[in-house]
Fold:
Amino acid sequence: MLDRKARFSIFQMMAGTVIVAVFCAALFNENQWWRATLGTITMGMILNALLAAIFSNEERRAFSLSYFVGAVFFLPGLYTYAASLPYLLTITLMDLIGGYTSSGPKRENFLIVAGIFWMQITCLSSAMIGRVWYRRAIAEQHNPS
Structure:
């Protein structure tokens, strides 16, 4: 087992804050360029994860492979996302934003950006789980009980 608790570094916290801020800016400023930029960055991250899963070693491979697997499993989950759409916190956020602005975000733009955001959250969560799993497996190999 691991002796230390899993913690976020300052870099990870700042990166998470930047990601949330960019997605919030994309939600408020509806624009086809925002959607295209977020979609391109997301596809680039998935391609980068796939290449890193192929060519990296050890912990980086576990992180990248888990990120890619999270993306692959999120795509069929889009159907579930669409079916449960009225019940998600994202729709409540859209209604809240619409109440505070004179012209709220268009539903299509909001749902695309929200889908990309949840995909990023899913991928990063699965990547962190994969890294922790890898570290535990290595720790158990070095210290068999």
